[in-house]
Every structure is written in structure tokens, then in C-alpha cells.
Design brief:
- This protein has 789 residues and is α/β, with parallel strands linked by helices.
- The protein has 29 helices and 21 strands.
- Helix 3 (32-50) packs antiparallel against helix 4 (56-81) and helix 6 runs parallel beside helix 8 (169-223).
- Mean pLDDT is 80; it is low at 1-10 and 761-789.
Length: 789
């Protein structure tokens, strides 16, 4: 029977067999010195240990025979290393086999004839040396299995003869173990040879494939939109193509040999690139600014190339021009962290900066937080309109920033932010931050009293300021902001146009909030909540295609309370969950009674998405109302994707499965990022009114709105602009390709009866039948949930 080793051996093509033999011989040649050194150390140990116990002549003959055979093997290996004997591999294989026989017989003779005449201790030593020699032979000659067979078998035979002469049962048992182990070692030598042949054949095929791939890559570079690059061991460009050089704006000759990182501008991007390449790490879509006057950004991907684990030969990769994508994302990133109206950092960047300063500040570092509120700003909007109000806010922000810059704070860190509406914040940190904060507040009070001329109107203004200090008043961000807010409330109550430092007794506002929260707990049961509707209009036809459900609270003593007042309280206390359930049931029931197929949009709070009852409530409301889910749309803000995002996205996907639509509300005012548009397939993006208000007067607002609409259209998402108040804004949005709008131009939020008057008998005709159809389904779902629970 032919062994599988022979089959593998004959499977190598004849023209490659000589090449494979040379590789096998070279592999053994690289470890001949280690083999010889181990053998001579073994021989020396035997001679030293047996000196005086055995004949000195025999010991000398044994040692010199080993030395001659070892020198002969070194001589063979040296000739192969210098290339004198690699052309005739079959002769070298025979030479190695004869040398292995010489070495094996030398050791075999000592073990066969010396072992019986030695003392027990010396017998053990000689046997151990023999086993060690057999094991090392199997390892060092493993790529030449025939030589290994000769070497191992002769030594094993000699040791077997020596042990057999002892005649004990333990010696016979040792012979059995020795022969079995020797046979296994010989077999392992053949297996190692086969594995080596398989690997070197694979390397040969891989090299051929690499040449083919290189040709294909060259063809790809000539016809593709990206560029390939290659670096040598020193990180210098090599083989620069004409397309690569043209993209950089230089010649191939001038780029050849240039350090790769010098193509990019100095900065942290370039330093990160240099560090990664020096450490031998792969690059994956690393975006860097290109050196030179052109504002270009390249994305670099690549990995180091090795001949072996430690032999790095260079670096290869691909480059693509991502300038347009980078600039687009930069604009959206700017939208996420900077206020569109004033250009100041927004609430998101303020919260991040304040948290970082509190976390990083040392124990002896102070921080002052100033919250500013523009006095009587609402009257400016009411008297002169929102455009004048926006211009007024821009002028105020410029005056605040200029005052902070001219305040003489020196190296003290400061940050001016617009938190929203007419509310601003200033962070001052440093060793004297507390004193600087007070002086700055006094200076701002004086400067802001000076009237401003806005669009021909002289407007008197002033600010109220609340101050809280860290670590004196609070060490945590939320508590510090809350304390500054209470101080601001006290400054307003003190007559405005002044500043107040936080004091522990400033809790009147907190008590008022608690009272409002207490009343809010009973608002649903007492029937004090009211649902208002605001039309959603198709830009092309200017037809009302649906409505957004907006919540109002008719307080028994305070009158109509706007959502900006009670919704934050509801979210903080968790009352938003039962209130939201009431809104969902009421809105769907109301929309089901409409004769047309108009849609209804309902806002969902992040707190609601954390509620386990949200999906059952929506499913039950859809079933009871009988409304088509395609007419229902739920709006979420970006904060939903910021915390607990995986769970929230799972809930949104389940809502999508019901057939309802999901919209991303207030896009660009919070933590907006392109990543969020890739995280979930939103049906609609709502552009915040702060961007729409500047369409007529601000070029940057038009650019931002156009970029968002273009991005949404490319992603297949509908866009809706909020706060459209005049025809010019509508025309600009239509020109940019916006699909839907809402705002006072088409109607403000009104009670639902304003847009859909209740006609006697109409509700029953439109709603009762779907109710009857849905109750059975709702009952079945309730029973199923009980059975599972």
C-alpha cells in the first residue's frame, strides 16, 4: 500500500520537485549549527561523566568520531549556504543521509556496548543522553525524513541492545516505550516534511497570485477614482503613479523618495499617522488635510507588508479624496455644536465643556458659572417681529463676547455659549475664577444697559445674571447649573438688570416647581390636558397633508400652561409616560374620525422610549382607533439616540414594523451627526426653526438648510421645515427641494376643533365601526399578554 506521505510527495510536479528539495535542504541547513552544538554538548557530557569509569581510549574515539561527523555536517551546510551544492539536491540528500548514519552509529555503539559495563547511575545518565539525542535528532532533521529515520533508528537500535543486555523487566518495558516513541518520532518527521512542502507550495502560489493582483491593481488605479501608494522600509514613497502625482499637484519624479507624512499638514492628524505607521498598525479610513493652499482632505487606508513576522518591507494602501464629504460633515458637525443664529457654542458644547472642566480641574482650581437672561426679550419679538428679535440676539451675543474678551481675564479659560432663546452662559475657570466672575458680571450689567440700534429701531436692553461657584456651591455639573439657575431666578425677581450669587436659601423657585409637579400628577385624571393641532403642509401643492399633535395644560388657577413649562417637569418626574399615553390614545382616536387620509404626528420623549408599556399602548391605540398605521408618525429628538441607543433603536424598529413612520425632530440643534442618519432609517427629518428664520438674511443659514435637504434627499428621507412664517422663506425652501413645511404662514397651533369641527353623527360614522372591529383584536392581545405573564 502506498502511504499518504508518498502520495503527497508525488503530487508535487516533477519540474518543482527539485525546487522543493532545495527548500527542504535549506530549511535543515539553517539549524545545523544548533544540531551540532547539541550533539557535541551531549558527547562532552558523556565523556566527562564517564571519565575514570570507562576506558579513556574508547571515550576519546567516541568523542573524536562525533567531532568529525559534526564537522562534516557543518561542511555540507556551509557549502549549501554558499550556493555550491544546491544544483544537485539528490546528492546532498544522500550526503546528509550518510552523515546521519555516521552520527547515529557513533552514539548507537556507545549505548549498545558501554551500557552493560557501567554503574547504575552512569547507565541512567547514558540512557538519558541517548533519549535526548534521539528526540533532538527528530526535531533538527525533521525536513529530511529519511535522514531523520536513519539517525533515530540507529540510535534507538543501539539503546535497545544496551537495555536488552541488562535483562531486567524494567529494561524490557523501557525498550517497548523507546521503540514506540522512536516510531512516532519518525512518523512525525514525515508529517513535518509534508506540512513544509504544503506551506512552501502555498507560498509559491501566493507569490504568483500577488503578481496577478499587482497587475490588476495597476489596471484599477489607471481606471478607478482612488490612488494606490507604496512605501519602502523608511516610509518613503516608491513607484508613484502619474495619477497619484497629478492628484497631489506635483510630478512623479519629485514625489519619489519623499516621506509619506510630509504630504499632509502638520498637526495632530499627521502625528497620529506617523505614530501608527511607526508602530506597524494598519490604517482604516484615516482622514487628513493635505499640505498646500488647497483645502483638500484625503482618506488613507493601508497596512504594513512583511516578508516574515519581523521582516517589514514597507507599507501599501489606497487613498481617496473625501473633501466634499468631509466639508459636508463638518458643516453638520458645526450645526450640532454651534448656534446657527449667533455662531456661539450651543447647549451641547456648553454641557460637554463644563463637564470636562469640572472633571479635569485640580482641587485648587475654581470655576464660575454665569447664566444670563436677556430682560424683556419677548416684548421685542412681539413688537418688531422675529427677524428683528434674531438680529437683536446676534447683537447681544457680539456684545457679550466682546466684553468677555476685553475683561482682562488674561490666561483664564472662558467660554461664551447660547443655551437657547435669550439665555446665555459664560464659564470662567482658573485660580481667580470667582473674583473674575463677579467683576465680569458687574461689567456685563453696565455694558448691556447701553441701547442698541437694530434695523432702525433703538432698543433698550439689559441682562439678569445668576452666578454659581465650583467647588464652593457644587462640584457636580447638574447641581452647579441648577444653583446658577436659582440665582438667575432670584436676579429676575429682584427687578432684573442685576446679578445674584447663589445662596442656599434660594429655593422658592424650587418649591414652585414642586407645586406645579404636584398639580401635574392629577392633570390627566382631572381632564386638564388639551390637544392642539398645527397643520403640516406639502410644499408643492400647499395642501394640508396632516397635523402635528401639540399638548397644552389648562391649569385651574394659572390658566393655559405651555409645554416648555411643564414638559421638562414631566420628563424629570416620569409623568411624561402616563401623559404621553393619553396623547397617543387621544391623537389616534381624533385622527381616525377625520374623513380624509391626513396624517397625525406625535412627539415621543426619550423617557417614553424607556417605558416597557410604550409598544403595548401604541398597538392597543392603533387597534381601538382602527386608523391606518401609515397615517401615524412619531417624532423623536436626537437625544433619544445619545443614551441607551441600542435599546431605543430596537424599539424604533418595532414601531417601524407596525407600519408607522419615524421622524427626527429639531435636526441640528442638539447632538446631530451624520452617524445618526445611518443608525436608523428615518422617514422624515425636521429642520429646526432656528435655521429657517435666517433664510432671508443669512447666507450660512441658506447653505446649512440646503446641505441638510440635499443630504436627506440622497438618503431617501422626507424633509420638513419648522417655523415658516413668510412667503420668502417658503420660496427659498421650495428652491432647495424641501418637501413639507409647518408654521404660522399656514396656521398656528389651535385646539383640534378649530381644524376639525365636531359634526353631530360624523364621529359615530367614522369611528364606531373601527372601534368594534378593533376591540376583539385588543382583547385577544390582552389575553395573550396575561397568558405569557
Amino acid at each position: 500500500m502506498v502511504s499518504k506521505h508518498a502520495v503527497l510527495r508525488t503530487a508535487v510536479p516533477a519540474e518543482l520537485r527539485e525546487w522543493a528539495d532545495n527548500r527542504l535542504i535549506s530549511a535543515h541547513t539553517r539549524i545545523v549549527k544548533s544540531m551540532v552544538l547539541g550533539g557535541m554538548l551531549n558527547a562532552a557530557l558523556i565523556v566527562v561523566s564517564l571519565f575514570g569509569e570507562y576506558s579513556s581510549i574508547h571515550l576519546a574515539l567516541f568523542f573524536f568520531s562525533m567531532l568529525a561527523a559534526s564537522l562534516h555536517r557543518l561542511w555540507l551546510a556551509e557549502g549549501i549556504a554558499r550556493g555550491r551544492r544546491q544544483r544537485r539536491p539528490e546528492k546532498m540528500l544522500v550526503a546528509y543521509q550518510l552523515n546521519s548514519l555516521w552520527l547515529g552509529l557513533t552514539f548507537a555503539g556507545t549505548m549498545a556496548f558501554w551500557l552493560p559495563d557501567l554503574s547504575p547511575g552512569s547507565q541512567i545518565l547514558l540512557a538519558i543522553c541517548g533519549v535526548t539525542q534521539i528526540a533532538s535528532a527528530a526535531y533538527t532533521v525533521r525536513t529530511l525524513p529519511r535522514s531523520a529515520t536513519i539517525y533515530v533508528s540507529t540510535q534507538a537500535l543501539g539503546l535497545t541492545v544496551g537495555l536488552a543486555t541488562l535483562g531486567s523487566w524494567s529494561a524490557l518495558a523501557a525498550i517497548a516505550v523507546l521503540l514506540a516513541a522512536s516510531g512516532l518520532l519518525i512518523r512525525m518527521a514525515f508529517v513535518a516534511r509534508d506540512l513544509f512542502i504544503t506551506r512552501i507550495m502555498g507560498d509559491r502560489e501566493l507569490a504568483a497570485s500577488a503578481r496577478t493582483v499587482r497587475l490588476l491593481l495597476n489596471e484599477y488605479e489607471e481606471s478607478g477614482s482612488n490612488w494606490l501608494f507604496e512605501l519602502d522600509r523608511q516610509g518613503q514613497l516608491t513607484g508613484v503613479s502619474a495619477r497619484f502625482a497629478e492628484a497631489f499637484g506635483a510630478s512623479s519624479k519629485s514625489l519619489e523618495g519623499r516621506q509619506f507624512e510630509t504630504l499632509f499638514e502638520q498637526g495632530h492628524h499627521r502625528e497620529a499617522l506617523s505614530t501608527a505607521m511607526a508602530q506597524g498598525r494598519a490604517l482604516r479610513d484615516d482622514v487628513l488635510p493635505l499640505a498646500g493652499p488647497n483645502n483638500c482632505w484625503w482618506s488613507v487606508s493601508g497596512r504594513p507588508c512583511y516578508h516574515s513576522v519581523e521582516d517589514k518591507i514597507g507599507f501599501r494602501g489606497v487613498i481617496s479624496d473625501v473633501t466634499s464629504q468631509y466639508l459636508a460633515e463638518s458643516r453638520v458637525h458645526h450645526m450640532a455644536h454651534y448656534d446657527a443664529l449667533t455662531g456661539l457654542p450651543n447647549r451641547a458644547l456648553f454641557n460637554q465643556s463644563l463637564g470636562d472642566l469640572l472633571d479635569e480641574s485640580a482641587d485648587d482650581t475654581n470655576l464660575a458659572l454665569l447664566l444670563l437672561d436677556v430682560d424683556h426679550f419677548k416684548s421685542v419679538n412681539d413688537m418688531f417681529g422675529h427677524p428683528t428679535g434674531d438680529a437683536f440676539l446676534r447683537a447681544i451675543s457680539e456684545r457679550i463676547s466682546a466684553t468677555v474678551e476685553d475683561s482682562g481675564l488674561g490666561g483664564t479659560h472662558r467660554l461664551v455659549s447660547r443655551l437657547g432663546g435669550d439665555e446665555f452662559a459664560i464659564i470662567v475657570s482658573g485660580d481667580s475664577a470667582c473674583d473674575h466672575g463677579v467683576r465680569l458680571a458687574e461689567r456685563l450689567i453696565q455694558v448691556m444697559l447701553e441701547p442698541m440700534v437694530i434695523e432702525g429701531h433703538e432698543l433698550a436692553n439689559g441682562v439678569s445674571i445668576g452666578i454659581a461657584l465650583a467647588p464652593y456651591h457644587a462640584e457636580l455639573k447638574q447641581q452647579l447649573v441648577s444653583n446658577a439657575d436659582m440665582a438667575l431666578y432670584a436676579a429676575k425677581n429682584a427687578g432684573r438688570g442685576t446679578w445674584e450669587m447663589f445662596e442656599p436659601g434660594m429655593d422658592a423657585a424650587l418649591h414652585e416647581r414642586h407645586a406645579l409637579t404636584r398639580d401635574l400628577r392629577h392633570a390627566v385624571a382631572r381632564g386638564e390636558l388639551r390637544m392642539f393641532l398645527q397643520p403640516l403642509v406639502d410644499v408643492a401643492s400647499e395642501a394640508m397633508t396632516g397635523y402635528e399633535a401639540l399638548l397644552r395644560w389648562e391649569h385651574p388657577t394659572q390658566g393655559m400652561v405651555m409645554p416648555d413649562t411643564f414638559i421638562p417637569l414631566a420628563e424629570e418626574t416620569g409623568l411624561i409616560v402616563p401623559i404621553g399615553e393619553w396623547v397617543i390614545r387621544t391623537a389616534l382616536s381624533e385622527a381616525a374620525s377625520w374623513d380624509s387620509a391626513q396624517t397625525i404626528a406625535i412627539n415621543l420623549s426619550p423617557v417614553q422610549l424607556d417605558s416597557p408599556n410604550l409598544l403595548p399602548v401604541i398597538i392597543n391605540a392603533l387597534a381601538i382607533s382602527g386608523i391606518d398605521p401609515a397615517r401615524v408618525e412619531f417624532e423623536i429628538t436626537e437625544s433619544v439616540l445619545l443614551h441607551n441607543s441600542e435599546t431605543n433603536i430596537a424599539v424604533l424598529n418595532r414601531l417601524h414594523d407596525l407600519g408607522v413612520k419615524i421622524a427626527l425632530d429639531d435636526f441640528g440643534t442638539g447632538y446631530a451627526s451624520l452617524n445618526y442618519l445611518l443608525t436608523f432609517p428615518f422617514d422624515k427629518i425636521k429642520i429646526d426653526r432656528s435655521f429657517i428664520s435666517g433664510l432671508s438674511s443669512r447666507e450660512d443659514s441658506r447653505a446649512i438648510v440646503g446641505a441638510v435637504i440635499s443630504l436627506a434627499n440622497q438618503l431617501g428621507m422626507c424633509t420638513l421645515a419648522e417655523g415658516v412664517e413668510d412667503a420668502a422663506q417658503l420660496a427659498s425652501l421650495r428652491e432647495h427641494g424641501c418637501q413639507m413645511v409647518q408654521g404660522w404662514l399656514f396656521g398656528k397651533a389651535e385646539p383640534s376643533q378649530h381644524y376639525h369641527p365636531v359634526v353631530p353623527g360624523a364621529t359615530k360614522t367614522a369611528v364606531v365601526a373601527p372601534l368594534r372591529r378593533a376591540r376583539k383584536s385588543a382583547s385577544t392581545q390582552t389575553y395573550s399578554r396575561r397568558a405569557q405573564g
